[in-house]
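Quick one, probably user error.
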């Protein structure tokens, strides 16, 4: 479904002589090098990778703010629309309305920080629908009483709704808006829940967690679900044309646009708190060249080189991810049964033969 050369080559095209896969000998962990990635916001694989890195930046900032005695709030805003409203128009509206909220907050609260992210769902009946999810960090003295929270909620919604009406989106529904406080006694649980929501589309693309809905697509699909169903729909069918039109409208709308934003001081919040001593950093997979040049690394990691012709054949069969997963599990001894272990040995032999044929 990609239209650019970079998207067609993503995960398939080669940047070096041979692609290589480095696998851990002790745990299911691996990385791939020598393969081209497009980094497009319309690519589910690249979006998942970038958003995963983003979550790892957000959580330390929020933890530090909570430990420092600040208030962290989660909120969602949206715009009224119909099935004929173009996604590009909705994205411009989100930007205008959020700028209005930001300006109002700046005038009312000193030293507040924010982060925002957007996601989209599509349904045949109502068209594209965007949500703007946001995090607010305020000083502790600003939200000590219930009436202060109510004032903040009214300020955010009224400034959003006023700008939406002036931009031609009609009256916003208060029912579609919420702003809740992150409880300070359960910060990590709340943070994990909401940061997952901020990057919901990326995680769904990887885990294939579909919304429960009826076959006529009236319960809402993420962009990646629209793309996949458009690909699987019968060629020349009305269903395929409708889904393709929805997908390309989304793709063209997000091209060149930011999918998230933050205040200048938001990322600096992480400096308010030292990392927990029990926090173990995520293990980094070394480069294939580093492994082959170090006897110590060779004891912990295995490098599999794959010939260009063999790799292209795997890509045409859409088996590159499965092959990497299989090598990963086989290297750390997590395959069960004689057939799986024999298949692993045959795959390793095939990889070695493919390199010799170069």
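Nope, works fine. Designed sequence:
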């Amino acid at each position: 479904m990609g239209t650019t050369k970079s998207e067609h080559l993503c995960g398939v095209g080669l940047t070096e002589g041979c692609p290589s896969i480095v696998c851990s000998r002790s745990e299911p962990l691996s990385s791939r090098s020598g393969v081209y990635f497009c980094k497009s916001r319309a690519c589910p694989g690249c979006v998942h990778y970038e958003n995963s890195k983003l979550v790892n930046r957000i959580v330390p900032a929020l933890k530090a703010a909570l430990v420092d005695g600040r208030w962290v709030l989660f909120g969602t805003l949206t715009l009224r629309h119909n099935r004929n409203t173009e996604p590009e128009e909705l994205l411009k509206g989100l930007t205008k309305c959020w700028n209005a909220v930001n300006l109002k907050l700046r005038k009312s609260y000193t030293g507040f920080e924010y982060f925002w992210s957007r996601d989209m769902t599509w349904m045949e009946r109502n068209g594209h629908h965007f949500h703007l999810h946001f995090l607010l960090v305020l000083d502790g003295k600003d939200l000590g009483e219930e009436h202060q929270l109510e004032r903040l909620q009214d300020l955010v919604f009224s400034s959003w709704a006023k700008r939406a009406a002036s931009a031609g989106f009609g009256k916003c529904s208060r029912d579609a808006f919420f702003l809740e406080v992150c409880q300070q006694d359960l910060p990590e649980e709340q943070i994990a829940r909401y940061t997952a929501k901020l990057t919901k589309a990326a995680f769904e693309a990887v885990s294939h967690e579909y919304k429960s809905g009826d076959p006529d697509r009236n319960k809402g699909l993420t962009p990646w679900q629209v793309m996949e169903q458009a690909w699987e729909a019968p060629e020349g069918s009305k269903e395929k044309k409708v889904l393709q039109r929805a997908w390309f409208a989304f793709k063209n709308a997000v091209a060149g646009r930011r999918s998230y934003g933050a205040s200048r001081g938001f990322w600096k919040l992480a400096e308010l708190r030292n990392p927990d001593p029990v926090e173990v950093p995520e293990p980094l997979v070394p480069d294939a060249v580093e492994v082959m040049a170090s006897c110590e690394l060779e004891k912990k990691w295995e490098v599999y080189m794959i010939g260009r012709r063999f790799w292209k054949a795997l890509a045409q069969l859409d088996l590159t991810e499965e092959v990497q997963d299989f090598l990963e599990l086989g290297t750390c001894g997590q395959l069960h049964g004689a057939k799986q272990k024999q298949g692993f040995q045959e795959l390793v032999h095939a990889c070695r033969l493919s390199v010799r044929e170069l």
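The chain is about 45% helix and 15% strand.
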